[in-house]
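Teaching assistant's notes for section 4

Start the section by putting this record on the projector. Ask students to predict, before seeing the second block, whether Acetyl esterase will look compact or extended. Collect guesses on the board.
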Amino acid sequence: MQPTQETLDFIDLLSRNLPDLRAGATVDDLRSAISAATAVDGPDVAVVRDLSCPGPAGPVPLRHYRPVPDTIAPGIVFFHGGGFATGDLDTHDHICRIIAAGTGAAVVAVDYRLAPEHPFPAAPDDAFAATRWVAENAEELGIDAGRLAVAGDSAGGCLAAVVAQLARDAGGPAIAYQALVYPVVDWDDTAARELYPSRTGNGDSYFLTAEAMSWFGEQYIADPSDRTDVRASPIRAASLAGLPPALVLTADFDPLRDEGEAYARALAAAGVATTTVRINDGFHGILGFGAFLNSAERAETALVSALRAALADAS
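Reveal the predicted structure now:
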């Protein structure tokens, strides 16, 4: 099976302006290119404000979205993608607006520290600190602390999975749901190539490449022994029992497809209520491009619908 021409054309549009990292382009060049590619308008929501919370190495910037002012609503802590080296509050602003408008939930986006300036475990440390702060300040944020979810795409999907595990192991905060969009869950590259055929089968020509995955791993994880740390590779946790219900969304032509689906199977085997959605004709990075691409629209609909239903049930 091959991608449709619509998808191939969109991949080409996104890819042609990305810098060649192996030819001397810098991480700042890549960040600028990603920022330009994601300059997409999202729907209006009633309140959008920047704030921050205490973190392990200083304040962590946040962005708070409220679709309806002056009400208590479910809450979603959102972690952006970008390979742990790119992405910020602005690159995923339109995605957070889509989620807030579609679910009716308050969304708090987390601008965690990026590699290589801040390698592992800076990102999960910031992500967990921010989630605890949101839970502790839920009333002020207009959030029902009993209906708090974590969500993210790609690197952010990994962080959402890790935060759910850390919260379970620490005895809180209570997480009602986790929504993982094409997450990376295993940074042991040698094992990953053997365990997940999509790492190589989809490793070229579909926007995110196997070569890019290797580069991101080099930026994020300075000590190779950390690649099997569960805060980097949540699929390697000793137990997944007791975690919150989950959505794991994957895409046909994504190198990370098979490991995301393996994590979903492992969650289900541990007794966690888990929904798996594979987006036909999808590729890594489609979330947020629903105005331009059919598969992206289906991904957004699946994510919003799952979050809305789960947080309604959590009440």
